[in-house]
Amino acid sequence: MAIITSHILNGTDGTHAMKIPAKLMELKSRKLLVHGETDDGGRLSLQIKSVDIYPSMSCELVFSLTKYWELKEITGGISEIALRFSVYQSERSYHLPLIINPHSYSTWISS
Question: What separation, in Å, do the N-terminal and C-terminal C-alpha atoms of the chain show?
């Protein structure tokens, strides 16, 4: 089983970005593999079943930010962030942290 994790920080005030919905899809078929949302610490952990993983599988992790920015009383911010990456091993962890701002974001991948 592959584990996909993230930690989202709000770059405008340094807080953890909580309750942000996320969905993980396999790109080729657009199959929804799993979904969830960040916890109170801005952390997300999703598991891809081994049976759903194939060599060099491409995935898309999509975060929906609209409601988060509305709660912060910010309008016109980025509504979604989609991160595309490859899953090369089924028994591995993939960490994709984010720093979000209303009109920009920063990300990287570590394993």
Answer: 14
Question: Of 29, 27, 20, 4, whose CA–CA distance to 100 is shortest?
Answer: 20
How sure is the predictor about 55, in pLDDT bands with cuts at 50, 70 and 90?
confident
Tell me the two tokens of residue 28. Answer: 């080729």
What letter does residue 17 receive in the DSSP assignment? -
Of 2, 109, 111, 104, nearest to 54 by C-alpha is 2
In degrees, rounded to 5, the angle at the alpha carbon of residue 71 between the alpha carbons of residues 98 and 15 is 40
Q: Can you identify the CATH homologous superfamily of domain 2-107? A: Transthyretin/hydroxyisourate hydrolase domain (2.60.40.180)
pLDDT class for 29, splitting at 50, 70, 90?
Answer: very high
